[in-house]
């Protein structure tokens, strides 16, 4: 990694831009409440953490949350256990559907196959009909609606209709394999499943009828399977499924009327998202309506500067929490720009073409996408008119220093580049952009307002300008409400609070910088994160173990070209060689059973795999050896000699 230039920022907002920012307006609103003047973001952040009830109370009022706030802001202030706005009543969808006019709410492109636009009035009408249809199907408060959809306007509408009824929405993308879908939706027992009839990727028509039939056969709680047309086969597929119905027929009996909203307590479940499945089936992370709404309003309006009629784009799928984050931009009265398919189809510049045509103001993507554009030699600053673009956000993995340089050289010299980091666990960010402060090469600008972010060393004490564990030391509204099927909260506590009791430990290696920003150095656990997509090793093993020639396997994330790639090591039966045919079979099995993102970049044979004394394979130890780092706890291994088999394999994976 090139040495960082700490002398000059890459970008500095001018005074006029700072003064006109949403953040500056919020700062002025906070001053009479705090009884003091704020001269910097750091001062505002310190107040927001020290006086969290006053801060979150102001967020509610300043962002115009629709609902009954109630008198109390925060009780039982502990992690876990804190309760924000315990007397409040609100509905998430009511806060997103603030408008009902002829201006544009949603824009969609599916590569070069389909383009659509929905006005706010059309979106309201679609949500109304979906709400009535779901209610007629028996969906009510607490019921689950699961969606296996591309990033279509219907996905947003189904989510809003579900939320309007007080039901719970959960989603994945249609490229998930049968096992990946069942490992998720099978746990939450949905009443309704909404799926597409297929999807496009890189110009190819991808059929999912067989997978959908297999999935629905193993979801006994599903009473209705609604098929959204994308390839034009919705009616045919619906007819082939028990309880199947095409979207048009599902909506047929219902006419649009004003959407009604069930206002429920602040912590009422809204979304179920999923952990990566590193140690088994994914954990089902339940997020509340109020916490999700407040965090997203804060991040969009204050950190991203989103204003009414801004045009907000994020390249994401329904299998990533950034989709949930993107949808919430409606609550700031922005136009949400949707895209589905390959980011390089039909041409390498398709997303920049889209941004230019739609005059996108906020362009969100992954660090891997930025790196791929840089390597492809793209220069949008020369080939495109991106004059409307004000903010580029990057997440999924750390943004490399040379990618910071490339953005300012090749995309736009006066854009606000905000690397952001948080996760599925909080459906929001711990650290992200500050539109009033400089952007420094390789650094995330600041901790989020109201978030008591810190970096702790091995002893649990705060450290500065050295790597440690990313933590949050005080409660915040978007902590999960609970894990599904975790009645005593044991899984929830183990996930975040075992390392440092009473402190949220996120599982990232992080480092404070001299500017008060942060650098994320990747995961500190065994979760894989290639291209910003969280992948659990258990999902890979579940497929590999079905290959008769493979005895066992171990997968790691290898740092590679400013990103992480999956490397799979396999122990084979005696006399079996890892030839091209077997390698292909392993990859095909993983692709079909999990998803294309789970397919390892490299597969290598090894004679043995290190295990703990309780028989568990040790991914972290192998990852350290491959990266040339010492293994700290070899005495915990039953066969520490196996580690030597992985020495030097980092070079062999080329």
UniProtKB/TrEMBL annotation:
<dbReference type="Pfam" id="PF16177">
    <property type="entry name" value="ACAS_N"/>
</dbReference>
<dbReference type="InterPro" id="IPR045851">
    <property type="entry name" value="AMP-bd_C_sf"/>
</dbReference>
<keyword id="KW-0547">Nucleotide-binding</keyword>
<dbReference type="Pfam" id="PF13193">
    <property type="entry name" value="AMP-binding_C"/>
</dbReference>
<feature type="domain" description="AMP-binding enzyme C-terminal">
    <location>
        <begin position="545"/>
        <end position="616"/>
    </location>
</feature>
<dbReference type="InterPro" id="IPR025110">
    <property type="entry name" value="AMP-bd_C"/>
</dbReference>
<feature type="domain" description="Acetyl-coenzyme A synthetase N-terminal">
    <location>
        <begin position="41"/>
        <end position="95"/>
    </location>
</feature>
<dbReference type="InterPro" id="IPR000873">
    <property type="entry name" value="AMP-dep_synth/lig_dom"/>
</dbReference>
<dbReference type="InterPro" id="IPR032387">
    <property type="entry name" value="ACAS_N"/>
</dbReference>
<keyword id="KW-0067">ATP-binding</keyword>
<dbReference type="GO" id="GO:0003987">
    <property type="term" value="F:acetate-CoA ligase activity"/>
</dbReference>
<comment type="similarity">
    <text>Belongs to the ATP-dependent AMP-binding enzyme family.</text>
</comment>
<dbReference type="GO" id="GO:0030729">
    <property type="term" value="F:acetoacetate-CoA ligase activity"/>
</dbReference>
<dbReference type="Pfam" id="PF00501">
    <property type="entry name" value="AMP-binding"/>
</dbReference>
<dbReference type="InterPro" id="IPR005914">
    <property type="entry name" value="Acac_CoA_synth"/>
</dbReference>
<dbReference type="GO" id="GO:0005524">
    <property type="term" value="F:ATP binding"/>
</dbReference>
<keyword id="KW-0436">Ligase</keyword>
<dbReference type="InterPro" id="IPR042099">
    <property type="entry name" value="ANL_N_sf"/>
</dbReference>
<dbReference type="InterPro" id="IPR020845">
    <property type="entry name" value="AMP-binding_CS"/>
</dbReference>
<protein>
    <submittedName>
        <fullName>Acetoacetyl-CoA synthetase</fullName>
        <ecNumber>6.2.1.1</ecNumber>
    </submittedName>
</protein>
<dbReference type="GO" id="GO:0006629">
    <property type="term" value="P:lipid metabolic process"/>
</dbReference>
<feature type="domain" description="AMP-dependent synthetase/ligase">
    <location>
        <begin position="99"/>
        <end position="472"/>
    </location>
</feature>
């Amino acid at each position: 990694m090139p040495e960082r230039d700490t002398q000059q920022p890459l970008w500095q907002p001018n005074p006029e831009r700072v003064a006109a920012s949403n953040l500056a307006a919020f700062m002025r609103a906070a001053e009479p409440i705090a009884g003091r003047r704020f001269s910097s973001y750091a001062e505002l952040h310190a107040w927001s953490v020290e006086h969290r009830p006053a801060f979150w109370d102001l967020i509610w009022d300043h962002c115009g949350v629709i609902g009954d706030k109630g008198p109390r802001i925060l009780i039982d202030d502990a992690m876990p256990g804190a309760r924000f706005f315990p007397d409040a009543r609100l509905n998430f969808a009511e806060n997103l559907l603030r408008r009902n006019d002829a201006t544009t709410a949603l824009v969609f492109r599916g590569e070069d196959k389909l383009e659509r636009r929905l006005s706010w009035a059309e979106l309201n009408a679609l949500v109304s009909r979906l709400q009535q249809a779901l209610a007629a199907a028996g969906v009510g408060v607490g019921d689950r609606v699961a969606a296996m959809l591309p990033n279509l306007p219907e996905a947003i509408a189904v989510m809003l209709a579900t939320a309007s009824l007080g039901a719970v929405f959960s989603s994945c993308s249609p490229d998930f394999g049968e096992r990946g879908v069942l490992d998720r939706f099978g746990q939450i027992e949905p009443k309704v499943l909404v799926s597409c009839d297929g999807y496009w990727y890189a110009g190819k028509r991808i059929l999912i009828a067989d997978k959908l039939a297999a999935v629905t056969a193993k979801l006994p709680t599903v009473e209705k399977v609604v098929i959204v047309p994308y390839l034009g086969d919705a009616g045919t597929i619906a007819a082939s499924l028990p309880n199947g119905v095409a979207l048009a027929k599902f909506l047929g009996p219902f006419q649009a009327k004003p959407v009604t909203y069930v206002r429920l307590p602040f912590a009422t479940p809204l979304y179920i998202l999923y952990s990566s499945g590193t140690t088994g089936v994914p954990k089902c992370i339940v997020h509340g309506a109020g916490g999700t709404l407040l965090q997203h309003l804060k991040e969009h309006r204050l950190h991203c500067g989103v204003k009414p009629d801004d045009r907000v784009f994020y390249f994401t799928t329904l299998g990533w929490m950034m989709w949930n984050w993107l949808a919430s931009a409606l609550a700031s009265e922005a136009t949400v720009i949707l895209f589905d398919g390959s980011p390089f189809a039909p041409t390498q510049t398709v997303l920049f073409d889209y941004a230019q045509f739609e005059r996108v103001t906020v362009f969100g993507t992954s660090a891997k996408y930025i790196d791929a554009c840089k390597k492809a030699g793209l220069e949008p600053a020369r080939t495109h008119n991106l004059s409307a673009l004000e903010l580029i956000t990057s997440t999924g993995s750390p943004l490399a220093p040379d990618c910071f340089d490339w953005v300012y050289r090749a995309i736009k010299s006066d854009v606000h580049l905000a690397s952001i980091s948080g996760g599925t666990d909080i459906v929001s960010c711990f650290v992200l952009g500050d539109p009033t402060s400089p952007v420094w090469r390789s650094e995330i600008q600041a901790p989020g307002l109201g978030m008591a972010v810190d970096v702790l060393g091995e002893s649990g004490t705060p450290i500065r300008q050295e790597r440690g564990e990313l933590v949050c030391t005080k409660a915040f509204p978007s902590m999960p409400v609970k894990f599904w099927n975790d009645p005593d909260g044991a899984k929830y506590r183990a996930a975040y609070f075992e390392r440092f009791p009473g402190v949220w430990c996120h599982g990232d290696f992080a480092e404070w910088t001299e500017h008060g920003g942060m650098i994320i150095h990747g995961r500190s656990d065994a979760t894989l994160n290639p291209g910003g997509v969280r992948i659990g090793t258990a999902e890979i093993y579940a497929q590999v173990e079905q290959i008769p020639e493979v005895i066992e396997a171990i997968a790691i994330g290898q740092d590679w070209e400013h990103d992480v790639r999956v490397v799979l090591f396999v122990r084979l039966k005696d006399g079996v060689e890892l030839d091209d045919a077997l390698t292909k079979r392993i990859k095909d099995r993983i692709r079909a059973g999990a998803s294309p993102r789970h397919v390892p970049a490299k597969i290598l044979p090894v004679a043995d795999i290190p295990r703990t004394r309780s028989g568990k394979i040790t991914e972290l130890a192998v990852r350290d050896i491959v990266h040339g780092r010492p293994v700290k706890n070899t005495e915990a291994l039953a066969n520490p000699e196996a580690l030597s088999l992985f020495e030097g394999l980092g070079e062999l994976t080329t």
